[in-house]
Model the fold of this input.
Amino acid sequence: MSALAYDGAAMLGRQLRRARNNPGLLILTQTMPISMLLFFGYVFGSALAVPGEEYRRFLVPGLLVATAAGGIMTGMFQAAQDTHRGVMDRFRTLPMSRAAVPLGQVVADLVLTAAGTVPFLLVGLAVGWRIEGGALAAAGAFALLLLFRFTAVWIGVFLGLLTRSEEAAGQLGGATFLLPLLSSAYIPTEGLPGWLRTAAEWNPISAVTTALRDLFGNAPVPDGAAWPVAHPVAGSLAWCAVLLAVFVPLAVRTYAAGPK
Amino acid sequence: MTSTYAVLSEGLEKRFGEVRAVRGLDLAVARGSVVGMLGPNGAGKTTAVRLLATLLRPDAGSARIAGHDLVREPHAVRRAIGVTGQYASVDGDLTGRQNLRLFARLHRVRDTAARAGELLDRFGLAEAADRPVSTYSGGMRRRLDLAASLIRHPAVLFLDEPTTGLDPVSRNQIWDAVGALKAEGTTVLLTTQYLEEADRLADQVVLMDRGRIAHSGSPPQLKALIGSYAEVVVAHADVMVAAAGVLDQLTGAEPSFDHDRHAVGAVCLDPTLTLPRLVRELDAAGVPLLDASLRPPTLDDVFLRLTETPATDHSDHSDVKERAA
Ligand SMILES: Nc1ncnc2c1ncn2[C@@H]1O[C@H](COP(=O)(O)OP(=O)(O)OP(=O)(O)O)[C@@H](O)[C@H]1O
Ligand SMILES: [Mg+2]
Done:
């Protein structure tokens, strides 16, 4: 276990150094949700029946969660790239903990994501978003957001180790962009027809988004929603627990086994 | 650890679907020696190295590396080895120094800065040390890769085609490094496409062909296997065929023609053939001879000869697909 912590810390250092050597990509990924907030917030915000500012308050938690879900793509891309470039091979020949490589990647991602959220929140504040609930609840919301990101990156790492293809990661990137569209991230699910509403509410993004809106005090939990959305905090925790229980062992095993 | 062999494998097997990349590899590498593994593309060299370096799990067979069981004690094996793969395995987004410090840290080296500095100096990378590796030339990357494999003074070093694609200067640097490692007592197993390299560095050469060892021995032993190389130059083109007939009889090998020079040559399997006898027989056959020579074979001759008509079984090779070029 201490070997895992030691090697994991070394791998965390590696990822942070890479980000520092190469900040362009990081800045690019952070400007994406900001432009979406401005675009959706003002274009959709003016077209919808609800007042624009109210929609933007609704949108900020949705974009936070949608961006966190993008961790699937980030995790996949990086794991595929490492494997492709052969540096994974070197780690595999070192006498180090098997879980340290994926763990280091995931933890580094959390650190960078947490830092990257700050500018987004500042823009959110500028366009009218506020923490309208208690400070403790807001802290819980951020913790939940990081847990969700953590989960998404593990899924991505597994997929990246499995496919070992940067192109596949790029293509899946498009798909992860679609995921939040069928959820409550950008729109309220109450207006959707029955079966579509059920599908959207069983999307883990909906549970986490609803939990964030509830904890920040931006919007109430919708009535008559499916279980994970009706009990958003418990629903989010359950989703993360299930997904982590499946994908962490899969990712570690795939890393340790190497190419067939 | 007390074994006289740094690498000892028995019946190692690896399949990729239908392809039997390595078929029953029995390898015995004496401690402190340098073994050169030669073979055409797709012979299974990389697969063999990856098996021995714990990167692939064998389908069958066993091996001990520096006294540790390959399958049961991979962690102990990893502590004893250094590996430089066929393709660079350093992080292009980090600088050379950051790479070496990271690997040193993962090796539990105390003073990572000092170790990284030493290796950067030794491989002539001090100046480029703080540039991202993505800006390195192929030769620099190769040297960094080798440096990364040496961080904890490995007992056994695996090098997969360490000099492929390098210019003569870089190649010499790698050769010198291997020589120095051997002098320090490191066991080295290297694969190569260059026979000159094996001839120069290796105490023992292993010729691989289609997943198995076709022949092995010291470079002189391998050369002795095929005796010598006979070549005659005749007066005009019409008599080349007659000369070839004589050579065929004397050497037992298929002659090859160089039409521009009116020369006919053949690898000679018979070590007792002498130059006077060669000349006498050709003269008796009425061949107007201008020049005749019998020179020691190069490893190239051995390589071509032994991999085109393997002395071992040929029948069961048909199931092996050639690697796409
Ligand atoms: N991951 C893989 N999946 C499928 N087939 C593979 C894989 N790796 C190697 N092979 C096959 O196994 C055989 C041996 O390949 P290997 O790379 O070991 O040869 P090599 O001697 O190193 O060749 P080269 O000189 O080109 O590097 C080839 O037929 C190759 O196509
Ligand atoms: Mg190879």
Remarks:
- The pocket of magnesium ion (ligand 2) is lined by residues B 45-46, 86, 160 (CB under 6 Å).
- The two ends of chain B are 41 Å apart (CA to CA).
- Chain B touches chain A at residues 16, 53-57, 75-76, 78-79, 81, 83, 85, 87-95, 98, 102-103, 105-107, 132, 148 (CB under 8 Å).
